[in-house]
Design a protein that fits this description.
This protein is mainly β and 323 residues long. 1% of the residues lie in helices and 42% in strands.
Length: 323
């Protein structure tokens, strides 16, 4: 007998339906992938139908959220629509977004089961980190791994403390980058001595993120749950501005905040929190920046006994594109 004989294309799966299905219906297959039922006719329970697991498909999109080109698309099982993340339900990964989809759009093009291609993955590709302060085993020190996440924290030691993660790899300012951060604020800074910044920068600082010459950041002050945004390109500085979004402290799925920085127009950078464009009329800019820029997460306190964290970073990626 031959070692192998061709059965069928690997991008289709024949399924005996346990429930009726409409033409073009999307379901999760036995291998965990997304599949779209082939054909133009509906089917009833017990029918055998082929489901295609590749190609670009137009799918129903959740209203009120923006999806950006090259980003992740998840299927909201209860709402039967594509969105930007999953929650503790039957949601599953669908593929990569093809082109931008506006908040009011009812559909989105998705390249089925294709994974995003980040140019920089801060949590996997490596980062530089310098801890300012007295390092103690099991307490203050360098970023700590939690599975695939990393955390930053400050302790009650009465001193200036700073810990960061700066991507080893950088890109040109004109590389048409979109940065994605998924953050959980396990415990907020206990006083205003604490500053948390994460975003894009041309370097880091061992004491003060405001001293970094080129950056665009999401910013949270200790003692406040307001999510702020700011930028500085060495010529024009936009001071921390309230996005009107508040973060909820905690370490659960419900506490995740997903923040995107779209630099495809460096002269007018757009920021998104949980799929919503925030401060669209504020001109955040890196137009005069010379770069290169990388991903940065930065937690600091100027002095005193304030504490902060853990601040969990579940994702920190930058993808770039030709246009």
């Amino acid at each position: 007998m031959a070692d192998a004989s061709f059965s069928k294309s690997g991008d289709t799966e024949n399924v005996t339906l346990a429930a009726a299905a409409s033409a073009g219906e999307l379901r999760q297959m036995s291998d965990g992938k997304a599949g779209v039922m082939v054909g133009t006719n509906a089917a009833v329970s017990g029918d055998v139908r082929a489901f295609k697991k590749s190609g670009v498909h137009t799918l129903t999109k959740t209203s009120g959220v923006v999806l950006l080109a090259g980003g992740r698309a998840f299927w909201d099982h209860s709402a039967n629509a594509v969105t930007f993340r999953k929650v503790n339900d039957r949601d599953f990964y669908v593929g990569t977004v093809v082109g931008d989809a506006a908040s009011a759009d009812t559909t989105v093009a998705v390249d089925l089961n294709v994974e995003p291609m980040p140019t920089i993955n801060l949590l996997e590709d490596g980062f530089l980190s310098v801890a300012t302060g007295t390092q103690v085993v099991g307490a203050f020190g360098l970023p700590k791994p939690y599975g695939g996440a990393f955390s930053l924290a400050l302790t009650a030691t009465n001193e200036a403390q700073c810990v960061d993660m700066l991507s080893t790899d950088r890109v040109a300012v004109a590389a048409n980058g979109i940065a994605e951060f998924v953050v959980r604020l396990g415990a907020n800074g206990s006083t205003s001595d604490v500053d948390l910044n994460f975003g894009l920068a041309n370097g880091t600082s061992t004491t003060d993120a405001d001293a970094i010459t080129e950056s665009v950041f999401f910013h949270i002050d200790g003692g406040s749950l307001n999510v702020m945004a700011e930028s500085d390109d060495g010529t024009t500085e936009v001071n921390a501005t309230d996005t009107t979004v508040d973060i909820t402290a905690g370490s659960a799925v419900a506490n995740r905040l997903e923040c995107w920085i779209d630099t495809r127009n460096p002269a007018d950078i757009q920021l998104y929190i949980d799929g919503v464009n925030v401060l669209p009329a504020t001109v955040f800019t890196l137009a005069a920046a010379t770069g290169p820029i990388g991903l940065l997460a930065h937690l600091e306190k100027t002095s005193g006994t304030a504490t902060a964290g853990p601040v969990y970073f579940d994702r920190a990626e930058l993808r770039t594109m030709e246009q």
